[in-house]
From TrEMBL:
GO biological process: oligosaccharide catabolic process
Alphabetic keyword roster: Isomerase
Protein name in UniProt: Alpha-glucosidase
SMART domains the record matches: Aamy
SUPFAM superfamilies: (Trans)glycosidases
Domain of life (superkingdom): Bacteria
Amino acid sequence: MSWWQHAVVYQVYIRSFADGNGDGVGDIAGLTARLPYLADLGVDALWINPWYPSPMADAGYDVADYCGIEPDYGTLEQAQEFLAAAHHAGLKVILDIVPNHTSEAHRWFAAALADAPGARERYHFRPGRGPDGSQPPNGWQSVFGGPAWSRVADGSWYLHLFAPAQPDLNWEHPQVRAEFERVLRFWFDRGVDGFRIDVAHGLVKAPGLPDQAPEADAEGDPAMLDGAAHPAWDQDGVHAIYRGWRAVAGEYLPERVFIAEAWVADNDRLARYLRPDELHTAFQFDFLRAPWRASSLRAVLDDAMAAAAGVGAPPTWVLSNHDVTRTVTRYARSQPPHLVGADWERRRWAQEQADHELGRRRARACALLQLALPGTAYIYQGEELGLEEVEELPDEARQDPTFVQSGFADVGRDGCRVPLPWSGHAAPYGFSPAPVATWLPQPPHWGAHSVAAQRDDPESFLALYRAALASRREHWLAAGALQWLPSPPDVLAFSRGDLQCWVNTSDHPVSLPSSSKVLLSSTTGALGSATGESTALPADSAVWLCRSSRRHAAES
Ligand code: NOJ
């Protein structure tokens, strides 16, 4: 099996991971200094959110130069030193490529604004509608809110599916295709092991940029995160681009890999991105859209595994990332009976109090579920510390363009991007080497969740993740196919070979099989050996078992 088929990938949101130079913003120096932490945690690879020069209109997803490093984060030389150090520590490195749009500060867009010959053809410029052209060319809405079109000085309009500072590229243009293959080679030549592809389903738009079929969404809203059909998303023409990219990856040894971020309608559509000559893997997001309910989780797991198996790709398991509410908080309120969109939690945080301790119990249990599954698992920085969403950031601190573009109706994604607490009892909690204001403020209780506070506590979140990652490596990787076991209502139970995973989403304890030994439990109290007597699995918890005929050291 190749590494990417079973890897645990740790997502580094570089701006908030660790600050090396004391300016309150995470950087490459800080990340490099913390590599021992990541190696010790037991992950296999790092995915780093965009680290390229950017005006930061969308936290780096507005790229001004795809072959450079944002000065706030360091230099190209530091990036190369980091790559060497990560590889030395046994960690693969995946970068984030943003091909759907550039920054407005990209040289191509500057040339387009100056109306240099041919420059506008690399983007989607159109005349407006109406007698004086004052209406946008179509009714598409930006994912962040408001129209997906902005007007330039001479009266024409350009398309931006995200912020106005993120003009969409025209992928029908041969220069766009050639440039991105050059960018891929630039980083592959420097040893990068792969790319996560931002908005992988958005590059090609339906010919003529038609208004959306009225029955699909009356508001013309490209609800990207809900997978609704829209002429901007998931067009068949996108696949030829990825066939070209796969050929570039294949020029390298070992082959470089791609992970698609593609919010498409369902796993069957997603599987099309994973055909043998296209991308290697893709995020399957339903896991993070599922409520804490055994029946919903089981449906999501079955669907994801079947779709991946159909194209010979590993399933991928994501519980959170920099775009969605942190897992602890998602599980801290009443659970809906259906899958939810990425902004679901943000719409109800003011209405229903979050019980973070409940959320943490469930998040610990779900971590054991995630890490017992076949395929690739993603951990978003801070998930291993049990951090919750910082919901009550002051409005003036919020930086996500969603906040402004939604007319302040959606608080946006800043709450999951707050700088990590490393140590100490006062901000910046070891994030910066000096007492500076961090780019997003950290909450007063952050010290209780710091790495230093958890490191030596065997019952901490961090201890659970370290034990689970070590145990996954030792036991689960070779464990074989998943088979569901009979279980009581609201309980998930499956075996893989001699191993079992039990997850109790009900509100009462359930009995575990008596002939098994506990490998690891998400509960903080000891479960004890299950051999010879029936042991109860408490509500909102999970356990890994192995058949007692095999001798495994208990790790809990
Ligand atoms: C998806 C990224 O994860 C998100 O953070 C970003 O805002 C959009 N793509 C636009 O690039």
